[in-house]
Amino acid sequence: MPRSRSHSTQTVTVLRALAADSSVWRHGYDLCQETGLKAGSMYPILMRLADRGLLETAWERNPPSGRPPRHLYRLTRSGATEAAQLGSSRDRRPGRSLAQLRARTEGA
What we know:
Low-confidence stretches: 89-97
Radius of gyration: 14 Å
CATH topology: Arc Repressor Mutant, subunit A
Shape: globular
CATH class: Mainly Alpha
CATH superfamily: Winged helix-like DNA-binding domain superfamily/Winged helix DNA-binding domain
Number of helices: 5
Order of helices and strands: HEHHEEHH
CATH architecture: Orthogonal Bundle
Number of strands: 3
Mean pLDDT: 81
Structural class: mainly alpha
Helix content: 40-55%
Distance between the termini: 34 Å
Number of domains: 1
């Protein structure tokens, strides 16, 4: 039986960023820039979300000349549903703004 755990503040931030337009493929670097999370936090979150079926992944087709293909991410239907439920669920942690999250992750 799978455990039912709430998402971390960082995971909620990533889900919300991806949910802004769930049909668009996003690069991990762009998500790092948008959320303020460092790559060492972002990529494990993206891998966990993909393992749980909330995120689909693909390799970039036709990257610009001289640059290797990058991994792309977007929410699955289940992921979009999960992200939509965050606004009204216990996973939302009041008092945690993105600025506070950035300060906490940058200080770590």
